[in-house]
Every structure is written in C-alpha cells, then in structure tokens.
Design brief:
The chain is built from eight helices and five strands; from the N terminus they run βββαββααααααα. A hairpin with a 4-residue loop joins β4 and β5. α3 runs parallel beside α6 and α6 crosses α7. The longest helix is centred in the middle third of the chain and has 21 residues. The relative contact order is 0.10.
Length: 243
C-alpha cells in the first residue's frame, strides 16, 4: 500500500492535480494527471467528492481509505510486521483519552478554522472564531502544565493537532480571518508547535509554499485575485523551551 503522492497544491476546476511543480511527485501507482482519475481507477462510476489523503492498495488496485483520521490510526500498527518504524502513537491504555481530546480539537480547532473561514454571515463567523480561540486558550493552559496533550508522551492526538497549528499563522490567521491572535503569541502552544516541527523527519514534510499556494489560490470566494502573501516570517527552528 502507498499513500498517494504529493500533489500540486493548486486546485483548479478539475480539483487536485499532479501537474509538475516544485515538490510535486507524479502519481506513483499509474499516470493520473488529476486525483479524480485515481478515484475513477478504483471505481469507474464514482461521482462523489475527490479528497486527499488517499491510501492506495497496490496489490488490489483500489483505494483503501481517504479519511485522514482513519488512515492515521491504520498506519499506527497495520505495517508493524513489514518494516514500519518503531512507535505506538495510539496505545491501548490511552485510546479513550486520545479519542476524547481528538473530538475536542477536531470540532473546535481542526474544523473550527474552516467553520470560521467559510462563514457567510457575520454573527456565525464571530461565534465560530470565538469558539476557536477559546479552545486555543484551553490548550495553552493545558500545555503550561504538561509537555504534550496527554502528559509526557507524544500521541496521535498531538500529530492531529499539529497539522492545524503549523498552518495557523501562515494561512488561517489571515486567509480565514482567525486573527484574534497569532499562534506565535501563545507561549506554550508556539513552543509545543516548534517542538513537534523539530521532531525527527517532521520538518521535511512541511512545505509552506505548498500550504500557502493551496489555500490562497484555491478559494475564489475568499481570495478572488489569488494573491499569495510573502509572510509571515516564522522561526520554527528556535529552541522550543519545553520541559
């Protein structure tokens, strides 16, 4: 099985594309030009939404899963017997706590930035953005008492939160109007984000050009001219000062 490729960050009228560009890897399981062709390869009559990530089964020639939360949980143990790196980020004794904090962070933060960013009414936007920052304040306090979301051990919950935090200042603060504060103004959350970014092999998976190109050029109703900002300037290599 493989997780299909690094696609081009810009989504045009045909959706996610494998069009050549810096950091883009061609479809490794075929010769698709667009992600929708991968879905049709798996199910010729498919007419639903085309999303990423995608976990593809090379032997069966089909999509195993396209839900990120489920893929993360699968990858935690499904390949342990065939050379996966050591590490258990969803230990059985912590699963209930992981699921509980995941539910909180998904609704209020991972999805919260979208609920604020795509709001079409002022009062809805204001309610969602306040809920988002209330949740960030809660985690700021939590991370002032412990190193990670569930104590002194990195778990799946931390990595699920990281994907939103690492995008917060470059994208969500400006593009989605989540601008009550920048993440770097939170002492604990910002140090926590830097620590996870500096975790072995993680920084190489973060491409800020791809992140900004995707968001700022793919949402015509929010940014009709497709202008991609130069900033912000962030020092993610600064020591995280977490203990």
């Amino acid at each position: 099985m493989i997780g299909l490729s690094v696609v081009n960050p810009y989504m045009g009228e045909n959706g996610w594309t494998f069009a050549p560009g810096p950091g883009v890897i061609p479809d490794p399981a075929g010769d698709a030009k667009y992600m929708y062709e991968v879905y049709l390869r798996a199910a010729p009559n498919y007419s639903g939404r085309v999303t990423v990530p995608v976990l593809w089964d090379l032997k069966q020639g089909t999509i195993v899963n396209n839900e990120s939360a489920e893929i993360i949980r699968m990858l935690n143990s499904a390949f342990d017997g065939v050379g996966a790196k050591d590490g258990d980020y969803a230990p059985a004794d912590l699963l209930d706590e992981i699921d509980e904090i995941n539910a909180f962070t998904y609704d209020a933060i991972n999805n919260g930035v979208y609920k604020a960013g795509f709001a079409t009414e002022q009062d809805v936007y204001e309610g969602e953005v306040r809920n988002l920052f209330s949740a960030l304040d809660t985690l700021e306090e939590r991370l002032g008492k412990q190193r990670y979301l569930l104590g002194d051990r990195v778990t799946e919950a931390d990595w699920r939160l990281f994907t939103t935090l690492i995008r917060f200042d470059p994208v969500y603060h400006g593009h989605f109007k989540c601008n009550l504060k920048m993440l770097k103004e939170y002492e604990n959350l910002w140090g926590y984000t830097r620590e996870l970014y500096q975790w072995p092999s993680i920084s190489g998976t973060v491409n800020f050009d791809h992140i900004k190109q995707h968001y700022y050029r793919s949402h015509d109703t929010i940014n009709p001219n497709g202008i991609v900002p130069d900033g912000p300037v962030l020092n993610l290599d600064q020591p995280p000062n977490r203990s």
